[in-house]
Amino acid sequence: QKEVEQNSGPLSVPEGAIASLNCTYSDRGSQSFFWYRQYSGKSPELIMSIYSNGDKEDGRFTAQLNKASQYVSLLIRDSQPSDSATYLCAVNVVGSGGSNYKLTFGKGTLLTVNP
Amino acid sequence: GAGVSQSPSNKVTEKGKDVELRCDPISGHTALYWYRQSLGQGLEFLIYFQGNSAPDKSGLPSDRFSAERTGGSVSTLTIQRTQQEDSAVYLCASSPLAGGTQYFGPGTRLTVL
């Protein structure tokens, strides 16, 4: 069973702080990694995608990937109360025959940013 | 452009009835996925379409569940003889290519009484 693991939280940070969300995955062949944000009662929306080792920055968000350690993280700088949501890590899974259409999602980390 | 749309947004049905959920993907997206999300749970993969074919139906929980996609666009998920454990949010996502970024619709909240 190819898995994606996240701490369920809740992770609580004060407004303006850096929130760090972590994810590990089991499939060494994975090539694509995604972070989604899901507000309560809403559907997931894409925050960032990352495909290469290292950091990728987009505004207040930075995704970090380390394929050797099978680890991907999301940093949120200057956290705002509006960032309070569940963050889902998703990793593509290489199936039989080399197929790679499937994403496996972690169960998500609940982030609360306190004013 | 328009995103993924799903209908109905909410569906309340009685146990034993059949329901049909619809997904309209982003135009040009060849890959389409159905997921189920129960309260407080993660996303459960149900089925994957590439064009009109469904190479992976492995997530369908029982033979009461079926799905089809016509014209490489709209997809319907049908649940026959609904049970209370089928109550969940059913999410559809589309992607321009297999394994790429998936864009989610707003979901259909199904309640089986």
List keywords for this structure.
heterodimer, A: 115 residues, mainly beta, 6-stranded mixed β-sheet, 5-stranded antiparallel β-sheet, B: 113 residues, 4-stranded antiparallel β-sheet, 11 strands, globular
Structural class of chain A: mainly beta
Radius of gyration of chain B: 13 Å
Strand content of chain B: over 45%
Mean pLDDT of chain A: 92
Low-confidence stretches of chain B: none
Largest sheet of chain A: 6 strands, mixed
On the 0-100 scale, what is the average pLDDT of chain B? 93
Radius of gyration of chain A: 14 Å
Largest Cβ-defined interface: A-B, 24 and 22 residues
The number of helices of chain A is 0
Provide the structure class of chain B.
mainly beta
Uncertain segments of chain A: none
Largest sheet of chain B: 7 strands, mixed
Describe this structure in words.
The complex is a heterodimer of chains A (115) and B (113). Chain A is mostly beta strands. In chain A, 0% of the residues lie in helices and 54% in strands. Chain A is built from no helices and eleven strands. In chain A, the strands form two sheets. In chain A, strands 2, 4, 5, 9, 10 and 11 form a six-stranded mixed sheet that branches. In chain A, strands 1-3-8-7-6 form a five-stranded antiparallel sheet, with no helix packed on it. In chain A, a hairpin with a 4-residue loop joins strand 7 (61-66) and strand 8 (71-76). Classes of the chains: A mainly beta (115), B mainly beta (113). Chain A binds chain B through residues 31-32, 34, 36, 42-46, 49, 88, 90, 92, 95, 99-108, and chain B through 31, 33, 41-43, 45, 48, 50, 55-56, 89, 91, 98-107.
